[in-house]
Amino acid sequence: MNTADLTEVKNFTYSGDKIFDKAQDFLPINGTDYVELYVGNAKQAAHYYKTAFGFQDLAYAGLETGLRDRTSYVLQQGKIRLVLTTPFDPESEIAQHLRLHGDGVRVIALWVNDAYDAYHQTMSRGATSFMEPKTISDKDGEVKMSGIHTYGDTVHIFVERKNYTGLFLPGYEKLETGYQPGDAGLRYIDHMVGNVSLGEMNKWSNFYSETMGFANLVTFDDKDISTEYTALMSKVMTNGNGYIKFPINEPAHGKKKSQVEEYLDFYKGPGCQHIAVATNDIIFTISEMRKRGVEFLYVPGTYYDTVKDRVGIIEEDLEELKKWGIMVDRDEEGYLLQIFTKPVEDRPTLFFEIIQRKGAKSFGKGNFQALFESIEAEQARRGTL
């Protein structure tokens, strides 16, 4: 990315990896604390994410720890913490979320210095409360938390853990299942993408800008992300230090139903479309995940015919990338390697992106055409294009 990408953003300057607005730097965020999925069977989901993605046991809360309404398994890989939660009460809010959406992301938790201040700052700027500030504690110290609503039924929880030395949160105990496949080289969450309804992209990008102090890193319109049949528009929002990036997608008019429309139809509303996780060795990661049964979108072999002309010199063997279906794109800072899983649920909703950045700060614009054609092929197989 270069400064030309920021011409639409007023009062922002670019310095190395940082975009910041001195007047709005009111919500320092240190990173993604955890991502919580509401799922139909947390025990089985944990087994899947351990086996297929290489996540490791971390913590557990349920009947054995005094919880009477739900159970949660916490898995970790690198800096990624994944919480899988299942309800016991069929009338609970969690069960209602499951009935409507199926398995999906409920909580995107953000690690902050001051959870109380984060709540009051965002509420004073128009946020809707999800969780009033509270302090929870156990023998390992205390954690302060608060929360606000974002698009659809997704929420942000602010987590302050500077006075806590435990595994995860108070109320959780160490998870030890005796089943621990090796990790797959995943390191941290690169970005998380939200799908919203037609006409709501600007509403939610403004929410992140005005309520949370984010900047618009880059905007893609239907000329950038389209094929003959479908299109979408997207605005990528980032916090000041660049640790948190939230692309916000909305459908654009096309001849057929776009991937965003398909998602909205099956998820029954806006939600998190995909989680992009970073690796330092994408060939190792993808080879491991394929061996473990993860399915990826098919990339036509003809895609690789023009890679050298478009991307130039890269360190990786192009034939090896072609073998694994890994795409390549370049910006003025470097290049990136990326690949997308098929949906990890039976509903065509949540999926994952695996990404390795070799200096690039962008989002693979040069791959959009091939990616859309692959997604459209899957939609055609499902009869939803």
Task: Give an account of the 3D structure.
- The chain is an alpha+beta fold.
- It contains nine helices and 19 strands.
- The protein has helices at residues 42-53, 93-101, 115-124, 201-211, 259-267, 282-291, 307-311, 318-324, 368-382, and strands at 13-15, 18-20, 29-38, 56-61, 70-77, 80-87, 104-112, 129-138, 141-149, 155-160, 173-174, 186-195, 215-220, 231-238, 245-252, 271-279, 327-331, 334-340, 351-358.
- A nine-stranded mixed β-sheet has the order 8-9-10-7-3-6-5-4-11. The protein has an eight-stranded mixed β-sheet with strand order 13-14-15-12-16-19-18-17.
- It is globular and about 60 Å long.
Keywords:
385 residues, alpha+beta, nine-stranded mixed beta sheet, 35% strand, disordered N terminus
Determine the fraction of residues in helical runs and give it as a percent range: 10-25%
Amino- and carboxy-terminal Cα gap: 33 Å
Shape: globular
C-alpha-based Rg, rounded: 20 Å
Q: Provide a count of the helices.
A: 9
Give the SSE order as H and E letters.
EEEHEEEHEHEEEEEHEEEHEHHHEEEH
Structural class: alpha+beta
| Overall strand count | 19
Low-confidence stretches: 1-23
Strand content: 35-45%
Major sheet summary line: 9 strands, mixed
Which strand order do you get reading across the main beta sheet?
8-9-10-7-3-6-5-4-11
Q: Calculate the mean pLDDT score and round it.
A: 89
